[in-house]
Amino acid sequence: MSAAAIFARNRGFRIGWRLFSWLVIVLGVQVVLALAISVTPIQLNAIKSHFLDPRWLIVGSAALLAAVVVATLIAGRAEHLSLRDYYIPTRTFFGRFFWQGLLWGFLAVSLLIALIAALHGYHVAGFAVHGRALAYSALWWLLAAFALGLAEEVAFRSYLLRTLADGIHFWPAAVLISIGFGALYFKPYGNWQVCLGAALFALFGCLTIRRTGSLAFIIGFHAAFDWALTFFYSGRDAGKFAAGHLLQTSWTGPAWLTGGAFGPEASWAMGLVLILLFLLFARLYRPPSQLPNM
User: Fold this and answer.
1) Which residues pair with 127 in a beta bridge?
2) Among 8, 28, 67, 223, which has the highest number of CB atoms less than 10 A from its own CB?
3) What is the rounded distance in angstroms from the CA atom of residue 26 to the CA atom of residue 130?
4) How many helices (H) and strands (E) in the chain?
5) Does a structural domain hold residue 109?
6) Listed residue (238, 17, 229, 13) closest to 107, CA to CA
7) Which residues pair with 126 in a beta bridge?
8) pTM, 2 dp
9) Is residue 64 within 8 Å of 93, Cβ to Cβ?
């Protein structure tokens, strides 16, 4: 069977073949890149020791992004579609939606931390890094947050979302993909609240695509959210603080408030922030007159 036949755009069983073929290409490219990374100089392999080292996050995110883009370009060529048809904003990447997303992401984390601090769950004792090390860490974390936000959004809410929507329509596809994204967060110190929060975060990302027509807003939002939570406000992620985080922080109080060992994403305050995000975004961003396959 030819690539054009596999990726033919019609509803029904062939949607499954398109998704399966795309995933095979993604995994194949990732295996090749992983092998290439494994034979790099030892300095690169040394940073694997801390999964929240921004340099390693950049490497991993770049590998994921490369695999997804290669697979999407191959599928798009067979389907006679461009990257823009899969919500990737190739012409207007750094347009207004991206910068609005950055602002929303930072404000969302700021509200989350403010709610926890208001109930005496978050305290700052001072800076964790100083001088040149502070500027160095800030730059690396800006790059890492952008790379992570870009890679995860393109991986989960580009080809996967558009193609699944071809078969079952946009919102059923968005719900399924969001559930899958949430399930990935069942990692060390994770629980059902963490998974639910991640799923709602993903569903919010789908809402932004529905209303703006591209990934630009949610990429900016995701990048700012990760940077603010992990570096700027120095929260834990899966039980660890990021390498080079900005502040010396302490988290006191019940786990429902602080998120416990996992970090503030597991706080019940996160649910309140997400609900507010849905309400505000749906009110402020009206759907465009025409969006494909939605």
Assistant:
1) 247
2) 223
3) 40
4) 12, 2
5) yes
6) 229
7) 248
8) 0.90
9) no
pLDDT digits (tens, 9 = 90+) for 60-79: 999 999 999 999 999 999 99
- Domain span holding position 34: 3-284
Q: How many domains does the chain divide into?
A: 1
CA–CA dist 90, 83 (Å, integer): 7
Return the exposure string of 14-51: e unless at least 16 CB atoms fall within 10 Å of the residue's CB, then b: bbeebbebbeebbeebbeebeeeeeeeeeeeeebeebb
Q: CA-CA-CA-CA torsion for 36, 39, 43, 47, nearest 10 degrees?
A: 60
Tell me the two tokens of residue 257.
């408030």
Distance CA 78, CA 19 (A): 13
Residue ranges in the chain modelled with pLDDT below 50: 1, 5-6, 11-13, 290, 292-294
Contacts of 10 (CB under 8 A, 6+ apart): none
pLDDT digits (tens, 9 = 90+) for 247-256: 999 999 999 9
Q: Report whether 270 contacts 143 (CB < 8 A).
A: no
Residue 22 lies in a domain: yes
With beta carbons less than 8 A apart as the criterion, state whether 271 and 197 touch: yes
d(CA 269, CA 108) in angstroms, rounded, equals 11
Q: In the predicted model, what is the mean pLDDT of the chain? A: 88
Q: Is residue 155 part of a domain?
A: yes
Q: State the DSSP code for 91.
A: S
**Taking a C-beta distance cutoff of 8 angstroms, is the pair 245, 56 a contact?**
no
| CA dist., res. 194 & res. 190, Å (int) | 6
Would you say residue 290 lies in a domain? no
